[in-house]
Write a structure and sequence with these properties.
about 350 residues, alpha/beta, Quinone Oxidoreductase, Chain A, domain 1, 2 domains, 6-stranded parallel beta sheet, 12 helices, binds zinc ion
């Protein structure tokens, strides 16, 4: 089969490799319906995370089960499944509290930028559909695996309430999904911070009510102006840099929450500043499994169309071009046809 490996920064290759097999009785093997490149794949691609050995890439997936291990009971061959990028047992105390991404058995999915993939902890990580989905829904179902689930978590962690004002920092795929999520959760006002025309347009389509193109102090001033100098009730931080976190803290009102889902790189907090600012922070890898049943329902009933975030569709064989397009910000998110 074909699979994707990252050999070194900037060096991603598609190659022929052995098909994965069941390694543990809790595994499932799936045939991917489609897969994609994640913003977080760009960290090692850009050399910001170390690449020690060739890494088998890909953690976003949906497709058809072809085989299950002896202990798997909730999914069976032939079923179409969507799973979380964060693998969990769905039974431990953290899972029961809804924090599947801190599962005591937590693993992270790998090897999904392939034709076939092994999904560990299949019972706890996969959700099966009643029947095979219509073809045009596959991008949206794939989005649920990570990018939508992560944007949703940002809004959930930021405690977006009906009627509230939410600010979304970051106009990448996750930020755009955060806009969609905040709107779905009933925010009356969703302010998207974006300087890029195509992303602004998609943000508006997903329910943004205001666009702020300014950044830094100007961006903060603009949001204060839009919120009667109070600041936002909920802030979704969807980037992970020192600048974006500073922006998020500065536009949040006292008593608000910041849901932060961009993997922090170079972010530091000053204890006293945080103490006197009275802002709350909740973030981390998204417990996508908690949200999956609801998200799949919204997608299958066509209430949301997160799949539109994929603005580049190419064959898996051209995966290197997909990374390049995202790295150069020519594409918001690349879908790989398998
Ligand atoms: Zn667990």
């Amino acid at each position: 089969m074909l699979g994707t490996k990252l050999y070194a920064p900037g060096d991603v290759r598609i190659e022929e490799m052995p098909e994965p097999v069941i390694l543990k009785p809790t595994d499932a093997i799936i045939k991917l319906a489609a897969t994609c490149v994640c913003g977080s794949d760009l960290w090692p691609y850009r050399g910001l995370n170390q690449v020690a050995a060739p890494m088998h890439m890909g953690h976003e997936y949906c497709g058809t089960v072809i085989e299950v291990g002896a202990a798997v009971t909730s999914v069976k061959p032939g079923q179409f499944v969507v799973g979380s990028f964060c693998l969990s047992d769905n039974t431990c105390p953290h899972c029961r509290f809804g924090f599947h991404s801190s599962c005591v058995q937590r693993e992270f999915m790998t090897g999904a930028q392939s034709q076939i993939a092994r999904v560990p902890l299949a019972d706890g990580s996969l959700v099966a559909l009643d029947h095979a989905p219509e073809e045009d829904l596959i991008p949206s179902l794939l989005a649920a695996s990570d990018v939508l689930g992560t944007g949703w978590y940002a809004a959930d962690a930021a405690r977006v309430q009906p009627g509230s004002t939410a600010v979304v920092v970051g106009d990448g795929a996750v930020g755009l999904m955060g806009v969609l999520a905040a709107r779905q959760m009933g925010a009356a006002r969703v302010i998207a911070m974006s300087r890029h025309k195509a992303r602004q347009e998609l943000a508006l389509e997903y329910g943004a009510t205001d666009i702020v193109a300014e950044r830094g102090e100007d961006g903060v001033a603009r949001i204060k102006e839009l919120t009667d100098q109070i600041g936002a009730d909920a802030v979704l931080e969807c980037v992970g840099t020192a600048e974006s976190m500073k922006q998020a803290l500065a536009v949040a009102r006292p008593g608000s929450m910041i849901g932060y889902v961009g993997v922090p790189h170079g972010v530091e907090f000053d204890g006293q500043q945080l103490f006197y600012s009275q802002r709350g922070l909740l973030g981390g890898p998204a417990p996508v499994r908690r949200f999956l049943p609801h998200l799949l329902d919204l997608i299958l009933t066509r209430k949301i169309n997160p799949g539109k975030v994929f603005d580049l569709h190419i064959p898996l064989a051209d995966v290197a071009q997909g990374y390049k397009a995202m790295d150069e910000r020519r594409a918001i998110k690349t879908l790989l046809r398998v």
